[in-house]
Amino acid sequence: MIEVLIIETPSLGDRGYLVTDGKVALVVDAQRDFDRVTARATDRGVTITHVLETHVHNDYVTGGYALARAVGAQYLVNAADPVSFGRSAVRDGDVIDVGGMRVLAISTPGHTFTHLAYAVSDHAAGDDLACAVFTGGSLLNGATGRTDLLGAARAEELGRAQYRSVRRLVSDLPGRTAVCPTHGFGSFCAGAPGAGAPGAGAPGTGAPGTGTPGAGALSTIAVEQQSNPALILTEAEFLADLLAGLDAYPAYYAHMAPANLAGPGAPDLSPPRAADAQELRRRIGLGEWVVDLRSRTAFAAGHLRGTLNFPADGSLATYLGWLIPWEVPLTLIADAPETVTHAQRELCRIGIDRIAAAACGPVERWAAGDQLGSYRRARFQDLADQDGNGGPAVLDVRRRSEWAAGHIDGAIHIALHELADRMDELPDGAIWVHCHSGYRAAVAASMLASRGREVVAIDDEFEAAARAGLLASSGESDG
Prior knowledge:
By secondary structure, the protein is of the alpha/beta class.
């Protein structure tokens, strides 16, 4: 029986897979920190013989190349991808035997031009009908991969290809086949970020060889036939919805494909050099990024002036990678060394390997006698309770699509990834800043505070703004 083990990366909204017949294993779309994969293989007592890529990834640095070299496995990459390293070239229709498993490569352009899916069957059991298909960024759970990562000018062309690819999978595979995508669990590579079946993000294992998806296989071909937009809409309807739903994606994506085409090595997760308070002040003075990994509550209560807050317990890699100038040195500060270790692992997945320095311990140690910065935190009801002079200035740092779905009456809209370049558009005085659930607002508040602005961070779920009667009536224009 074939077993599928999910290697979860919830902070990026992605999954990799270890697939085994009990003796050997293949890996699909490994993340950079592939020690998580080898640990699962060791736990199962299986040998990894093949490492597969569905596509050249745009949202993370692959661990596939380094993993294959470390364990002596074949590295399967589309023959059409212009990589600069040796690989086992694979094409549409190729069949690869991996122990008792049989793997069929299926061309599924759309997310990228050279995208592949891999259908796996239990050949040793005499069953050559696919029990699982690894779909990368093509057929997702209740969605499809976005089609604009190679440029907006190619989005429609790739959207049409995506529609055909998804329908090909459904036509060629039995309804029982478990659908195992890489994206779609909050990844910005999904056509609708955050898309996914109920339960998306929960770790688990599945046993697709039984004909049942299992705990980790969130969907099947038959389920997708009933609900996936690419399968229930006409091509024109699908394309219109897909293109209308495309919003901004992280700036660091521009660096991922070149890194993956070059064959990235294993990450260096050794501890960064320790920095004292004098060095932290020097780095801040030079305009380098010194990032405080503590919670947004702790940062608001007291922080080293000039530092930025990207809490380690949220979407650290996504938003730090999105905002940081790519060549600026990065120093991390935290309460404890294990928080820095966690952040290193998160950041290596997007190619931020070289942490300049790190400091751990109480914030007073970092300040070394300097006055700490602080700012107020509030709820949406606190904002509603403000009166006089039309109320305070409110800054909404959510993305365009979120703003369009509903926003606070009179708010200024500047998406977080645009804030550094547009601060001069903000009025004088205190700024109340919010997002959907507080993480982006915390980042934005720290950016504003580092520029000497008076700020109030709204740490609340956006649904509370409606309950407080703050939302604008539909049709009001952007602020």
